[in-house]
């Protein structure tokens, strides 16, 4: 489905502008996720950089509203009714990207409630690995949405599902550990937020291989059994 949308982006001036807005949204959310992750794991940044992340979130939200407005205006023209499925897909995707920005902001804010330094143990190392996996997934998603390669998309979906399973296992492990309240809160919520970022990325990536009615709710058995 996304391959056809990508083709339309490149051939239709109005839809091309929507595509550019969407690409900017995704890139901003990616930058936000990287910054928030660095701060969460202890990097000190100037207040100006923190403020910039909030400004990026505002720009993501503005882009979402702009795309919605463009879609409504585009579909109000009778000759554009054939674009309805692609516009519906785009409306779904921009909501996922908006949520990516929200979770990045949540991770940044969570750093204020966690410990000054995480313990050097297996749980923290696992969360760092999950973080790296999500950041790699994000980077790959940016590329896959340019090429619309279905084989790569399937591989990323499998990797994303594995990250989600590891996240669930880590939350259970942390809940049974003897951390102080601040560390437990930071580890559990941090894991949860990274899981949700991965989930929304999977929704976006699924558009490459799934029809419109299955985007966000793809058949996991179908995906996992594909060659």
CATH class label? Mainly Alpha
Share in helix = over 70%
N- and C-termini, Cα separation: 19 Å
Structural class label: mainly alpha
How many helical stretches? 8
Q: List the quaternary state of the chains.
A: single chain
* Annotated CATH homologous superfamily: Phosphate transport system protein phou homolog 2, domain 2
Number of strands: 0
Taken in chain order, the helices and strands follow as HHHHHHHH
How confident is the prediction overall: mean pLDDT?
85
State the major sheet. none
How many domain regions?
A: 1
Model regions low in confidence, pLDDT < 50 over at least 5 residues = none
**What would CATH call the architecture?**
Up-down Bundle
Query: Which topology does CATH recognise?
Result: Methane Monooxygenase Hydroxylase, Chain G, domain 1
* Beta content: under 5%
The dominant shape is: globular
Calculate Rg over CA atoms.
19 Å
Question: Would you give an account of this structure?
Answer:
It is a single chain. With 227 residues, the chain is mainly alpha-helical. It has one domain: Phosphate transport system protein phou homolog 2, domain 2 (Methane Monooxygenase Hydroxylase, Chain G, domain 1), CATH 1.20.58. It has eight helices and no strands. The chain has helices at 2-11, 13-40, 47-75, 84-110, 122-147, 150-175, 181-206, 220-224. It is globular. The chain starts with a helix and ends with a helix.
Please give a quick description of this structure.
With 227 residues, this protein is mostly helical.
Describe the SSE topology:
Elements: H1 2-11, H2 13-40, H3 47-75, H4 84-110, H5 122-147, H6 150-175, H7 181-206, H8 220-224
